[in-house]
Design goal:
single chain, alpha+beta, 28% helix
């Protein structure tokens, strides 16, 4: 996996410890927004020093192929309007009603092609940049200063064969729901995760009342398998979560290709 990818409207980046002020601001301004859907965090979680430690741990996990988190940045240009009602975090997301809204070119993708094929890397969500964290280019630094941090996508508990699996979780800024940004990010990253880590299965655990997230994974082709009882401690109690999975040989979802 590279440190940076771009899609039609987003830049997806692995961040270093120097970005702690930006991630702290993101979590602080979305604290109430995320609280309904996330595990309980200590107060220190919302400080720059804590976030710096988180980013350091994420870098270590990435280098060990244990987990990878991408931070979603939107460029300041106007994005297409949408009517998406997503509001959620943890495994929350946003909806998309067409390939045009996602900003990802799917014109060469067959609905019969599986997620895990190498051809999934040839769309317009192509990788750019190879070095760790940020380029030294002055022009790129100027562009990065104008970028807005709007979300995160994390693939964790990456287990090689024979398990060949991982778990996905995501968050989206409250001010940027409803425009298909999370769909755009996941359409870019999921095929790459399957390919680079040689995985066969991606799991998502979602609260039953998190309807936008449920719509997202179903649109992307995830299949509900059942209920994970008492899965996470959330809101002062252990909660049941719905378990979804996506396999590398599952077909690329026709709903994303054909939706108007």
């Amino acid at each position: 996996m590279l440190y940076r990818y771009t899609t039609g409207r987003l830049t997806l980046k692995i961040l270093g410890q120097e970005s702690a002020p930006r991630t702290t601001d993101f979590f602080l301004r979305n604290r109430a927004h995320f609280s309904c859907w996330e595990i309980d965090h200590p107060k220190e979680y919302y400080t720059a020093s804590y976030q710096q430690r988180v980013l350091a741990a994420e870098e270590t996990q990435f280098l060990r192929s244990q987990a990878v988190r991408y931070y979603l940045f939107r460029t300041p240009e106007p994005a297409p309007a949408g009517r998406d009602s997503s509001a959620l975090s943890g495994t929350g997301s946003s909806r998309s009603n067409s390939a045009a809204r996602t900003g990802t070119d799917l014109s060469n993708r067959s609905s019969a092609a599986p997620y895990g094929t190498d051809s999934s890397r040839s769309n317009s969500a192509a990788p750019t940049g190879t070095g760790p964290f940020d380029s030294s280019s002055a022009a790129l630094h100027t562009a990065q200063a104008a970028e807005i941090l709007i979300g995160t996508v994390c693939f964790q508990h990456i287990c090689p064969a024979p398990d060949g699996s991982c778990q996905v979780g995501y968050r989206l800024d409250a001010a940027h729901t409803g425009h298909g940004y999370m769909t755009e990010a996941l359409l870019c990253l999921i095929p790459k995760i399957f390919f680079y880590y040689k995985l066969h299965r991606i799991e998502a655990d979602i609260l039953p009342e998190n309807h936008p997230s449920l719509r997202l994974v179903q649109r992307l082709g995830f299949t509900q398998e059942g209920v994970a009882r008492g899965r996470y401690f959330c809101g002062g109690m252990y909660r049941d979560y719905l378990r979804f999975s996506l396999l590398s040989d599952d077909p690329f979802p026709p709903s994303v290709l054909q939706r108007e």
